[in-house]
Design goal:
single chain, 324 residues, alpha+beta, Tumour Suppressor Smad4, 2 domains, five-stranded mixed β-sheet, FHA domain-containing protein, transmembrane, membrane, transmembrane helix, SMAD_FHA_dom_sf
Length: 324
């Protein structure tokens, strides 16, 4: 009779799967067993399984072990028990799930758009393109923000390259976390997704510049930029956890949201601590853009004069009404 045994973690994540043929099975740490466990809390001969041909049932028995065996109900197995398909037994710090060949399986899941995006980002041409674009944009902004009299082209490109290398560390960390959790590292996916999403921060900066150019200084657009930054950071962590760890959607949302809140909360506290009560040297944004960046076309000089005259006429009429 066939029997499938799955080694699962405490979080019910699959570690290994084995299929056996026969009427008896031995499980333990000894090398004579059919399934050998490396858990030091497991005895040399820990579990014995046998198949009863008359009843067509599997039976499992703990071999009077030191730490015992715990069934799915959380009770210690003191006597031989019937083994049903799907039962989980804890031996030492290990968990084993027993399945019969006819055990039902869940329906197959269609690839989502997110998975297609993750696979697309793992292509070498996408990775090289995104990293190159990210580095060049960094170099361009560094060049624009440097006094032309003090510019050093080698330093501009070196700093941009160092920024890309620093960003490169994060996907390496995520891939390592996946590796130590016995999941597929998927390093290329992590690199591609990280650089694609981090590049979106340039959209937030550009949006802030456009809105600041089109609005008066009395209207603050910082909250829009902050909201975009928080959303992009959350998406980055969500996709990193989606690739690295097999988590439930709610748990992934909590992890990504918590890490985002931690980072932006720390930044907020640091800014609040460093901000003086009175700044005798306020910063002035003298950024100048071409009229092409205006969201609304400006008035001509004739229209301005005409609108001003109408405004003054309306004001005079209102003043006369009050005096009457």
């Amino acid at each position: 009779m066939e029997l499938i045994i799955e080694e699962i973690s405490r979080g019910n994540k699959l570690i290994g799967r084995h299929k056996y043929q026969g009427d008896s099975l031995q499980i333990g740490r000894g090398y004579q067993n059919d399934l050998i466990l490396s858990d030091p809390h497991v005895c040399a001969e820990h579990l014995q399984l046998r198949f009863d041909n008359e009843q067509q049932l599997w039976f499992v028995k703990d071999m009077q072990t030191l730490n015992g065996s715990i069934n799915g109900s959380g009770k210690r197995m003191d006597v031989e028990q019937v083994l049903k398909s799907g039962d989980v037994i804890r031996v030492g710090k290990s968990q084993l799930r027993f399945l019969l060949p006819d055990h039902p399986v869940a329906d197959s899941v269609k690839f989502s758009k997110m998975e297609h995006f993750v696979e697309f980002s793992a292509q070498w041409w996408v990775i090289l393109t995104v990293i190159t674009a990210f580095t060049l944009i960094n170099a361009l902004f560094a060049y624009l923000n440097t006094d032309i009299r003090e510019i050093s082209y080698s330093k501009v490109f070196t700093d941009a390259l160092l920024t890309s290398l620093v960003v490169f560390i994060w996907p390496l960390v995520c891939a390592f976390i996946a590796f130590i959790n016995k999941h597929e590292a998927r390093l290329r996916n992590q690199i591609g997704v990280t650089f694609i999403i981090i590049s979106l921060f340039w959209i937030a900066d550009f949006s802030e510049a456009i809105l600041g150019f089109n609005t008066s200084s009395a209207i603050s657009v910082e909250w829009i930029t902050a909201a975009l930054g928080i959303a992009i950071t959350f998406c980055l962590f969500w996709f990193n956890f989606y690739i690295a760890l097999h988590q439930e959607p709610k748990r992934r949302l909590k992890f990504a949201g918590g890490l985002t809140a931690l980072i932006y909360g720390a930044v907020l506290l640091i800014d609040a601590g460093n901000k003086p009560e009175f700044n005798p040297f306020p910063q002035y944004n003298s950024q100048i853009m071409t009229p092409g960046f205006l969201l609304v076309t400006g008035e001509s000089s004739g229209q301005f004069v005409e609108n001003s005259s109408e405004l003054f006429t309306t004001a005079r009429q209102a003043a006369k009404k009050k005096t009457q």
